[in-house]
Amino acid sequence: MQNAGHERSEWSSPTGRAVLAVMLLLGGAACARPQAATKAEIDAAAARRDTVALARLAERECTPRSGAAKQTCYEDYFVRLAGSDRVHVALGALSALAAAHPDIQRDGHGYTHVIGIRAWHPGADVAAIFRSCTGLFQSGCYHGVIQAYLTEGGSVDSARTVKLCDEIAAGESDRWLRFQCVHGLGHGFEMAWNWELPHALKGCDWLHNAWDRYSCYGGVFMENAVASMPGGHHTSVHALSATMPMGDSAMAGMGHDHAPDPAKITFKMRDSTDALYPCSIVDTVYQFSCYQLQGGLILNRVQGNFAKATAECDKAPPIGRSQCYVSLGTNASGITLQNTKKSIEDCSHGDPGYQPFCFSGVVKNYIDVTARPDDGLAFCKEVPPGLNRGPCFAAVGEEIAVLHSSDMEARKLACARAAADGEAECRRGAGLLPGQ
Prior knowledge:
Helices cover 63% and strands 0% of the residues. It contains 25 helices and no strands.
């Protein structure tokens, strides 16, 4: 399992992050006005694989701005930096920025989408570029590669779609990587078909097995949820259009002049009168996956009040209620930037019978962000004894089973690092039989 750690290892300790923060802030203080990084500066730093220098260039250009202008500035910067031979460098620079700036960390998933979109171009080996991504910030780079592939201007057909993930990660050989592919297809279908959610879900139905289809449904609902948030659409939209004027011959013919037009979306992405929309209107087969993403929409509606949010989840039908709580946990992790104490507090609301699902959502997101099971185990060790602690360790085990799909020994070793009262639950979640 590959992650961005080798690009940022020297900055991963508290001391390293503090030093980096000072370096970046001092670099920003030297410039009172935005100063665009030149192509020569970016190219030189990228050639040296100097991710700290690249981070400082981005900060020099974008930090003096605010709000949407600042976000767009960073998107533009990563569009210029990223490319098929610069994926690791771009992700390393993003990781360095996030170490010093909480707003970058909070929006990191969107920026990794940008990097993935920019990495692929027609004629390139999509499988090779996909594998060059890492799990940084919930693996958005992987999803961006698939979005670029599906929105390149050609038709989206079942044959082209079904064989893609078989080329990238066939069968059970690497289930974690395959999940990133089929989940990315959901994002890509949404964008390729102008956020027409019912159409995108039907695209997922082309996939041959239930696990692939449900993973794809999650990508569809995630793209719909993020794109419908107040303040505009996914950073991916900007990334697709931003590649057009660059004069990069590698992008010629990419078809981004046919990028989705948010002004022409006909599907109603939200309903102000229904906190459970769109889950409340999709067919039953899609509801389980839909509720896994509904928490963010509900929290946005109730201004982040978890007590009110759990009350809305309690109105969901049985097929979706547990997953609604899971999605609240996922959002608790993201909103608090993996603050353990606050995440535990947020998940301690609502029906005690469903609270364990919230804790499951938190801890799985911890691992999705870093691809390190130890981060999840550390969280569970802080959960107070009671009904929520055991399911937390079991959820870590489930993540371990995905990360080590074909390596039982690796699963065993990972769960052995759980607390004394958590190892058995971790092993159960990881699918380890007694005696293994």
